[in-house]
Design a protein that fits this description.
- There is one protein chain.
- This protein has 238 residues and is mainly α.
- The chain has one domain (3-235): Up-down Bundle (Glycerol uptake facilitator protein).
- It is 68% helix and 0% strand.
- It is built from ten helices and no strands.
- α2 runs antiparallel to α8, α3 (65-73) packs parallel to α10 and α4 (82-103) packs across α9.
- The longest helix has 24 residues, at 3-26.
- The two termini are 29 Å apart.
């Protein structure tokens, strides 16, 4: 399987299961309605784990432009492969978001709050403050890259096949610890791709797609991911 194809499939799985759990918790008449943040964070962690195991052997399962650019910054990804990763990640995000829309087709209309509908596609801050929101996303993605490199540079979890599970638990940990202020996008494709689909899809009663905030969960994760990868490479050379 090509890098592009693997990243399309992996990111589609990630968004389907990740945004799917958000929709399950937030949309009216869902059997999981009001299940809470722990369910959302756990669901995202398991979504990452499943996606990593599904395509990791083909592309390394970046599933995230911040991961791709962070690994490229430390020389772990060839420059010629970067567009293949980024293209696959965004196409996969479009597909995954569309599948969430279809899976919850009967629940968009009964859900009155347009903000809840948008939250099933993209993130928004609990308290809107551009600097603070940027810092939160930066720190979260710094920890993501630092943690991923820590896990994958250890021979034991890689050899035993536990790396995917540990990365999923890393996502769970970041969500529980750092997800409260912004909803922890920590992934430009995860936020921007579904946000575009929110704008395009015929969702009844939807509001605006909050484009004024949209740059924060794109730029902050890229910056945090690159710096996180460079920091790991600096602290643990070779």
């Amino acid at each position: 399987m090509s890098i592009f194809g693997a990243e399309v499939i992996g990111t589609a799985i990630l968004i389907l299961l990740g945004n799917g759990v958000v929709a399950a918790v937030l949309l009216s008449h869902s059997k999981a309605q009001n299940a809470g943040w722990i369910v959302i964070a756990f669901g995202w962690g398991m979504a990452v784990m499943i996606a990593v195991y599904a395509v990791g052997q083909y592309s390394g399962a970046h599933l995230n432009p911040a991961v791709t650019l962070g690994l490229w910054a430390i020389g772990n990804v060839d420059a010629g492969d970067v567009p293949k990763y980024l293209g696959g990640e965004f196409v996969g995000a479009f597909i995954g978001a569309t599948l969430v829309y279809l899976a919850y087709l009967n629940h968009w209309g009964p859900t009155e709050d347009p903000g809840l509908k948008l939250a099933c596609f993209s993130t928004a801050p609990a308290i809107r403050n551009t600097v603070a929101n940027f810092i939160t996303e930066f720190i979260g993605t710094f920890m993501l890259l630092f943690g991923i490199l820590g896990i994958t540079s250890n021979k034991a979890p890689v050899a035993t096949g536990l790396a995917g599970l540990l990365v999923g638990l890393l996502i769970l940990s970041i969500g529980l610890s750092l997800g409260g202020p912004t909803g922890y996008a920590i992934n430009p494709a995860r936020d921007l791709g579904p946000r575009i689909m929110h704008a395009i899809l015929p969702i009844p009663g939807k509001g605006p797609s909050d484009w004024g905030y949209a740059w924060v969960p794109v730029i902050a994760p890229i910056a945090g991911g690159v710096i996180g990868a460079l920091a790991f490479d600096l602290f643990y050379p070779g």
